[in-house]
Amino acid sequence: MTTVDFSNWTCPVPLRDTPNVVMGHGGGGAMSAELVEQIFLPAFGGSVADLADSAVVTAGGARLAFSTDSYVVKPMFFPGGSIGDLAVNGTVNDLAMSGATPLYLSSAFILQEGTDLAVVGRIAQAMGLAAAAASVRLVTGDTKVVDSASGDGVFVTTAGIGLVPPGVEIGPRRARPGDVVLVSGDIGVHGVAVMSCREGLSFGTSVLSDTAPLAGLVAAMLAAGEVHVLRDPTRGGVAASLNEIARAAGVGVSLVERDLPVPPAVRDACSLLGLDPLQVANEGKLIAIVPPSAAPAVLDAMRAHPLGAGAQVIGTCVAEHPGMVVAQTALGGNRVISLPIGEQLPRIC
Amino acid sequence: MTTVDFSNWTCPVPLRDTPNVVMGHGGGGAMSAELVEQIFLPAFGGSVADLADSAVVTAGGARLAFSTDSYVVKPMFFPGGSIGDLAVNGTVNDLAMSGATPLYLSSAFILQEGTDLAVVGRIAQAMGLAAAAASVRLVTGDTKVVDSASGDGVFVTTAGIGLVPPGVEIGPRRARPGDVVLVSGDIGVHGVAVMSCREGLSFGTSVLSDTAPLAGLVAAMLAAGEVHVLRDPTRGGVAASLNEIARAAGVGVSLVERDLPVPPAVRDACSLLGLDPLQVANEGKLIAIVPPSAAPAVLDAMRAHPLGAGAQVIGTCVAEHPGMVVAQTALGGNRVISLPIGEQLPRIC
C-alpha cells in the first residue's frame, strides 16, 4: 500500500500549453515524446537514450526483448486487416526491431459493455491466425469490461517476449555517419487504408493495410550482414522514426525525396487529405540503418523476401545537422523533415 | 495481412442468453470463464487446464512467468491506493503466484482526451514507487489517446516477466485431497475500500485497500516448504479462486466458515451492500494450497512476514464433491460456495 500523498503533485511542464491530455499526446510525435520524457521516464526511472521499439533485458541468462502496445484503431475492421491483426503483428514487429525472435504474446482486452460478442470473436480469431502466421504463441491474457459510456468496442493491449540471438546489438544509438538508410517497401499504406473507411471521411481507394509480421524479414537481413538500427515506422510514420534515430544517435539523416517509395494511391489520398506520406503510419514496413559495407547484401536479402520485395535505399546518415532529418526535394532544394507535433490521424492503430 | 473473411463468423454459444458483452463478462466469475473458454481459447489454441494467474514458458533456457492485466478501476484513486498501485502490484502478484521472482514490467496507457495531465503524473509516480517497492523495473511502454466519449480517465495495462526458480512447480492442477488451504490475511478489504468511495454509494468506513506486492511473502513460503498451488483472489474473490482450483485439480474444497478472516468493517459493509465477503476482491492476499506435512512450516513463514501476519488455515482439499467448494457454516450446516456468475462490483480493479 502506497502511503505517499500525491494530492499536491502537479504536472512538471505545461505540455504544449494544455493542462489536459489531447489527442496529440497519443500521436507518436513531439507531444507523445514530451509525455514520456516529462512524466513517465522520471517516474519510472528510465532514460530517453534507451527508448526503442522494445526493451532488451536479461533473465536467467537469456537475453530477451520485451514490448507492449495498446491498440485502439477505429474502425476495428478496415481494408486489409483488423485490430486483431495489428495487435499481434505490431508487438511482433516491435520485438523484431531489436533483432529478436518473437516467442510469446499476452493479450488484454478492455471491452465496452454492449459490444457484439461476435465482434469479439472475430477479433480473437484474427489474433489467433496472425499469431500462427508469425510463429508466436498467445499464452496469457485478461479481460475487463467497462460501461458503455467509458469504452469503444474493443481495445486490445498485447505484450511480447522475444529471444535476442547472441551477438545481435541493434538500437537507435548505433546509427553512424556514412550508414545507409533502407526502407522495406511502400510507405503510408496502413494509414491511408484506415482513413479510407473512417466515418465521415470515406473516399474511394483500393489501398489495403500492410499489416504483417516482420520477424522473418529481419532474420533474413541479419543473416546477410550487420544492421545497426531497425525501426517500424508506425504512428508518426517514417518522419517520426528517423527523427528519433537522428536524435538518439546524434547523427543527421539525409533523404532523397524521389527515392521514397510512395505508391500513387497513397500520394493521391495524402493530397486529398492534406497529409505528408512521410508522417503516415505503416504496419508492415521497417527502416534499417546499416553500415555501407553491409548495405548491398542486406538490401539483396530484403528484396528476396516477400515482405521486402519493394526495398529501397532512401538516404544516408551524415555528420552534418545532427539530430535533424533533411530531404533533398525533387526540385533540387532541401526541406527539413521534422518530428510531427501531434496527431494527423487519430486512432490509426 | 490476414485474408480470411470473418464476416460470417458468429458467436459459438449464446453466453448467458446475450449476444452482447455485459459487465459480468469482466467479473472474473462464470461469465468471464465462458468468454475465455468459448471465444479466446479456441481462437488462441490454449487449454483450460493450463489457466493460471501467469503462464510459465521457456526462452533461451530460462523458465519465465509471463502475465498481463488491464486495470480500469473506478475511481482511479481510492482509500489506500490508486490504479497505479494496482497495475504494478497486480501483475507482480500474478507472477508471484507461479512462484516466480518478478523482474520486469511493461505499461500501456489508454488515456481519455481531456484527462488532467496531473492525474496521469500522479498515477505514473505511484507506479514508479510501487515498482521500486516490489523490486521490479518498468522497462517498456506505450501511450494511446482516445476521444473523450470513448474512454474514462486512465486505463493501464501492465505485463510482467518473472524468473521461476529451478524445481518450483506451482499450478492449480497440483491440489490433492488432504492438502491444507491457507489464506494470508483479512479478506474482502480491497473491494470494500473501492466501493466505499464509489459515486452514489459512499458509506462511512475506515477500510483501506490491501494492495501490496506478494513476491517477498511467496519467496519466504517457498523457502519454508512445498507449495502446490498459489492464487491471489482478486475479482470474484476467494470464492472464484477456490472454485477454479477445485475444477482444475478435480478435488473438493472444504472450508470452515468461522475460520475465514473477515474483518468487522468488511462484514458490516457487505451486510449493507448485500455482498458475500468470499466474493469480494482482494489485491494483497493469497491463497496457498500445501501438502499437510508442509503446512505448519509454511504457515509459520507466512505469519513471520509483514504481509502474512494474519495468515490462517481456512480449510482442506477433499476427495468428496470434486470441483465443488463447500463451507461448514457457523450453525453446523453446509453451504455450497459457487463460482460467482457475473459482476458484484464492476470496475473494482
How do the strands and helices of this protein lay out in sequence?
Two copies of one chain form a homodimer.
Chain A: H1 30-44, E1 55-59, E2 62-71, E3 77-78, E4 81-82, H2 83-96, E5 101-112, H3 117-133, E6 137-146, E7 154-163, E8 180-183, H4 189-195, H5 215-224, E9 229-231, H6 237-249, E10 252-256, H7 264-273, E11 287-290, H8 295-303, E12 312-318, E13 325-328, E14 334-337
Parallel strand pairs in A: 5-6, 10-13
Antiparallel strand pairs in A: 1-2, 2-7, 3-4, 5-7, 8-11, 8-12, 9-11, 10-12, 13-14
Helix pairs in contact in A: 2-3, 5-8
Describe the structure concisely:
Chain A is 27% helix and 23% strand.
Instruction: Provide the CATH topology of the largest domain in chain A.
Output: Phosphoribosyl-aminoimidazole Synthetase, Chain A, domain 2
* Number of β-strand runs of chain A: 14
Specify the number of helices of chain A.
Answer: 8
Number of individual domains of chain A: 2
What does this 3D model show about the protein?
- The structure is a homodimer of 349-residue chains.
- Chain A has 349 residues and is an alpha+beta fold.
- Chain A contains eight helices and 14 strands.
- Chain A has a seven-stranded mixed sheet. Chain A has a five-stranded mixed sheet with strand order 1-2-7-5-6, covered by helices on one side.
- In chain A, helix 2 (83-96) packs parallel to helix 3 (117-133) and helix 5 (215-224) packs antiparallel against helix 8 (295-303).
- Chain A is globular and about 55 Å long.
- In chain A, a hairpin with a 2-residue loop joins strand 1 (55-59) and strand 2.
- The first copy, chain A, has two domains: 52-163, PurM-like, N-terminal domain (60s Ribosomal Protein L30, Chain: A, 2-Layer Sandwich); 172-337, Alpha-Beta Complex (Phosphoribosyl-aminoimidazole Synthetase, Chain A, domain 2).
- Chain A has helices spanning 30-44, 83-96, 117-133, 189-195, 215-224, 237-249, 264-273, 295-303; strands spanning 55-59, 62-71, 77-78, 81-82, 101-112, 137-146, 154-163, 180-183, 229-231, 252-256, 287-290, 312-318, 325-328, 334-337.
- The model of chain A has no long low-confidence stretch (mean pLDDT 92).
- Chains A and B meet through helix 1, strand 1, strand 2, strand 4 and strand 5 of A and helix 1, strand 1, strand 2, strand 4 and strand 5 of B.
- Chains A, B: This is Hydrogenase maturation carbamoyl dehydratase HypE.
- Chains A, B: Belongs to the HypE family.
- Chains A, B: It comes from Asanoa ferruginea.
